Amino acid sequence: THGGPRKEFGNPWSSACIALWLNPLFRIGYKRRLEEDDMYKVLPEDGSERLGEELQSLWDHEVQKAAKDLRPPKLAKVLIKCYWKPYAVLGIFTLIEEVIKVIQPVFLGKLIQYFEKYDPDNMDALYEAFGYAAGVCLSTLILAVTHHLYFFHVQRTGMKMRVAMCHMIYKKALCLSSAAMGKTTTGQIVNLLSNDVNKFDEVTIFLHFLWVGPLQAAAVLGLLWVEIGPSCLAGMAVLVILMPTQTMFGRLFSKFRSKTAALTDNRIRTMNEVVSGIRIIKMYAWEKPFSALVNEVRRKEISKIMSSSYLRGLNMASFFAASKIIVFITFTVYVLLGNTISASRVFVTVSLYSAVRLTVTLFFPSAVEKLSETRISVRRIKTFLLLDEIVKSNHGFLQEEKQEPSVEIQDLICYWDKVNVQLLPPRLLDKPTVLSPVPPSHFPQSSLLSSILGELPHDKGVLKVKGQLTYASQQPWVFPGTIRSNILFGKELHPQKYEKVLRACALKRDMELLPDGDLTLIGDRGATLSGGQKARVNLARAVYQDADIYLLDDPLSAVDAEVGRHLFEQCICGILKNKPRILVTHQLQYLQAANQILVLKEGHMVARGTYSELQRSGVDFTSLLKREEEGPQAPGAETESRSPRSRTLSQNSVVSHTSSIRSVKDGTEQLPAEPVQTVVEESRSEGTIGVGLYVKYLKAGANILVLIGVVLLQFLAQAAYILQDWWLAYWAGEQEKLNVNGTVTVQNGVNVTEELSLDLYLGIYAGLTGATLIFGFARSLLMFNVLVKAAQSLHNRMFNSILRTPVRFFDINPIGRVLNRFSKDIGQLDAALPWTFVDFIQIFLQIIGVVAVAASVIPWILIPLVPLVIVFLFLRRYFLQTSRDVKRLESTTRSPVFSHLSSSLQGLWTIRAFRAEERFQNTFDTYQDLHSESWFLFLVTSRWFAVRLDGMCAVFVTITAFGCLLLRDQVEAGSVGLALSYAVTLMGMFQWGVRQSAEVENMMTSVERVVEYTELESEAPWETQKRPPPEWPSQGLITFDRVSFSYSSDGPVVLKDMKAMFRPKEKVGIVGRTGAGKSSLVSALFRLAEPEGRIYIDGVLTSEIGLHDLRQKMSIIPQDPVLFTGTMRKNLDPFSQHTDEDLWNALQEVQLKSVVEELPNKMETVLAESGSNFSVGQRQLVCLARAVLRKNRILIIDEATANVDPRTDELIQKTIRDKFRECTVLTIAHRLNTIIDSDRILVLDAGQIHAYDEPHTLLQNHDGIFFKMVQQTGRQEAVALLQSAKQVSSTQNISTLLSHSVLYGNLVIFETAL
């Protein structure tokens, strides 16, 4: 349907303007889900580029003019200049609408007067009454149409302003200078695009009310004065008092919101740690302190939410009660001044007040508020638009000069921010060379490249660049799109050249492994690629561009040595061998190939020349070289000791172990994970929601009795609300009878006109008003209380079930998905849902009330109501499905706009070096247009629906008005007034109610998702009846008897029928290839999933005791050390079971005491998120300290030494030998030197025991896996390992074995059987 029924709005007055062209869209939406292709093309005058350029030119003009007049440029002025004409025209709509709102009550009053003076014979009066009835109906119809036309067009103007601003912001972002980039952050720019610009959407809606509001108020005041005289001032006074109270509520509310937000962030951060460290928490059996922590934060948060909800409740109730109070005060004053009331007066007054109330209490204040917000946003955008831009320099040849491309630098001085001076003396190079600046420090070489690129402004000196530049940045940058589009980067595809580049950059193999080859989509920030792959794609992009000079900023650092060599030989010295290239590198082994080497140190050039020249001159660069030659993999400790600014190979080598293997793994593991996640999420957001869920939700908040009470209160409040108006009508009716009959009695010869007893009528009136207020406020507050409690209890249930679910759950579900429930869904339950729910219920009751009143006056009205209700239900179903899709499309088309912006900002230098700004700007405009399409649809569909609903209301009003006239013999003036004035209020309310019902339904999906997580399967109980003896396990004998283990009932079996025994005080190493089941052994021991078979510890069957009893008795040092946010003490001892002295001793033993003492508050120091202010080694030591504190007989080490420097490693080994001499220690090893001195070694292969014996014995068997593993470590290492194994076996004492067999006579047979 692209470009299909794409009509423009022709004449806004014709009925076709009610968007009949939308019907086909709804038909599609009803049958299936809407996709992006179903949307209509954006109108040319809403196109991003056109709007943006228009505003941009005006802005540039303003900037120039301002510079001439020496004043700051005004963005607001430009906006007004650009958009005032079409916007002003829309003011007429508002005026018409508000005028009609004021005239309608007058018609109503005349109609009621006919009933008051009812005379069956007077035909003229009847015709006049028909005229007035028609007036009432017509005005409702016109209101229905103009209101929505107005809203649609102002929102569209808002959209235009937003789109134009976004275009300008993006354009500006692409040409920011480095100095300006320092003043702003990516986050800030994204914030401008996401939050500040949205103010334009809101402000345009209300702006016109700034002048219409006061006018309308004045007109109403005039009419009221005519109707009831000066008493109207009392009512108006109440209105004026209500305005500031509501704004005050708003202020208070936002104050609470900000406090709540801080607590919520806090809770989500804690949750994040709990979910990501759940394995550790379970193994340590620390669930209780964590749940206490979360519950504490949640309690504070809920109390704030409760207060803000009560505020909301008061605000809503006051909104409903406001009109009641106003009318009450007006009439009390009126009657006490000695006037008599009549039905027409009553209802004209009521209707006029309700007409002006919305404008004065809602629209006018929000116009003021939004205007002030927008001014702040405009100011922020303006400061951004006035930041410095980069000076475009033009590199390239003039046509006639056919020169060699060259870069010439003389006495160059550059500043980043007028602080760091960068000096580069004499002149430089030309001809094809590989220039390798060798850095002892990170700063200058990148700065050198940036100055050549023109990113770094130069202050003095000469910098001449001849030729086209291309650049490969140090942090590899990829933008969302296919890999091919990342490499081509806007150039067209030449297959041979493309293949050549792929091969040179070692990407050929990777492409074969990815599912769609080079057409694989890269996610945001290149999520699907490994670091090494990104670096190579980055390099390939630079190579594919046919430029004259190549600037390569350390492209070899992210890849391992082998691939690095390939890239250097095939690519840098292969494809590019005839081009000048400047290569910044840290890997000195490549220097021999360079034609010229530049050594930079702290911004000065220390030396330059060829490799041999430099070696002769003996610059300190050779000392750099020496160090590298000793071993290209410099150990980590050494790097840390050198100045922190320097980067050497070692860090890089850690980054990528063989990246080819890594990339294969990444390719297979990560790619499928992406779509899976979305599928599961999406399946939820369709379909309707059953009544059962609502019941569950409400029952979570209160018990049945309270709920019944709430329901009764709701009805009482509504009844009081209606009765109060009905009493006025009744009073007027009684008064009328008196006036007509005018009975006069003679008492003691004095004529007394009979009057109604004021005290009785006014008293009952006051009583009803009071009841309305009390019930109204009570129901609001009670409802909020119930709903917030429901949110609280659902959160607690969900959290507890998450803590108790088996670890397997966290392996299947990505952390993001689990956290999403805790952040987004619980957020909905806390804030948005209660408010919408209460609002919906109040409006729903109002509507029922209106219908009930009308039916009590004219019972016949129920007959035409039936078809109306059917039509309405059909419309609602029809609309909801489409609108949900449109909303979904709107949010999905919004994200590319942001991700495009943030990825452009990350790759700013690359984009500029490749001169691709224009293309990126166009892409941005395309994304914007896509979002505009869906936003436009969103506006139109909601208006389409609203117009139809309001049309139905107009029909209802018509039926009521003419119905009263047809049944004129049986009705009283008061009840006609009541029915009609109520029917008229249906107009805006009905469609708002339907919208809210849709909202409630959408938000209930959050409840559904939370409820789904409260019902997860849980693992075995934490404590059972069978408690082990307190000092168990005293020995530490572990026996596996025919144990099989798999992570889930349908998963593969990872341990097969395993029999083994670990003797007390024995140190056992466990080795095996990856996937042999080493970690599964630990999982089985800790019962992370239930194993089959039996595991005994000191003769106690582990599967019979509670999980906490089991897990607390074994200590584990996990693979990835996890620290939690909180104090150091909490991290060591969350249950506070130990004294300070114990804690300090434990720290002393793992040599962390000095580190902790240096912290500002020693033990009480709060760690940063997940302990990131400690190095990995230190975190490992903290885990060791935990184990030392626990003093358990069994210690399990999941080889943590994979990423720890040798010193820590040695320390850990030493501590284990000393502190845990009396314990059974199982070590899962990845590096053999850590376990070669164990008593025995268990070799696993594919879940079965391959061999289990002393290391020395194992090494005798030359076919065994263990022997092969030792050989693989390399010749030197293998010799050392053999040596230490011999040593261990000779020292191992036979007597210990004998004593064992005496102790466990019954088990010896079992062992020999093995």
Strand-residue fraction?
Answer: 5-15%
Discrete helix count: 44
Q: Whole-number radius of gyration? A: 40 Å
Structural class: alpha/beta
Number of strands: 23
Shape: globular
Strand order of the largest sheet: 5-8-9-3-10-11
Plain-language structure description:
The structure is a single chain. The chain is an alpha/beta fold. The chain has 44 helices and 23 strands. The protein is globular. It starts with 22 loop residues before the first helix and ends with a helix. The relative contact order is 0.08.
Describe this protein with a few key phrases.
disordered N terminus; alpha/beta; single chain; six-stranded mixed β-sheet; globular; 1314 residues
Topology:
Blueprint: H1 23-31, H2 48-69, H3 75-116, H4 123-174, H5 178-183, H6 186-196, H7 198-206, H8 209-228, H9 232-276, H10 278-284, H11 287-336, H12 343-385, E1 406-415, E2 421-424, E3 434-438, H13 443-453, E4 458-466, E5 469-472, E6 481-482, H14 483-488, H15 495-504, H16 508-513, E7 521-522, H17 531-544, E8 549-553, H18 561-575, E9 581-584, E10 596-601, E11 604-609, H19 611-617, H20 621-630, H21 636-641, H22 649-655, H23 659-684, H24 691-701, H25 704-741, E12 744-747, E13 750-753, H26 758-804, H27 808-812, H28 815-857, H29 862-906, H30 908-913, H31 917-966, H32 973-1014, E14 1038-1046, E15 1053-1062, E16 1067-1071, H33 1078-1086, E17 1092-1097, E18 1100-1101, H34 1107-1111, E19 1114-1117, H35 1128-1132, H36 1140-1149, H37 1153-1158, H38 1176-1190, E20 1194-1198, H39 1206-1219, E21 1224-1228, E22 1240-1245, E23 1248-1253, H40 1255-1260, H41 1265-1272, H42 1275-1291, H43 1294-1303, H44 1305-1313
Parallel strand pairs: 3-9, 3-10, 5-8, 8-9, 16-21, 16-22, 19-20, 20-21
Antiparallel strand pairs: 1-2, 1-4, 6-7, 10-11, 12-13, 14-15, 14-17, 17-18, 22-23
GO molecular function, one term: ATP hydrolysis activity
EC number: 5.6.1.6, 7.6.2.2, 7.6.2.3
Domain ABC transporter: 407-627, 1038-1271
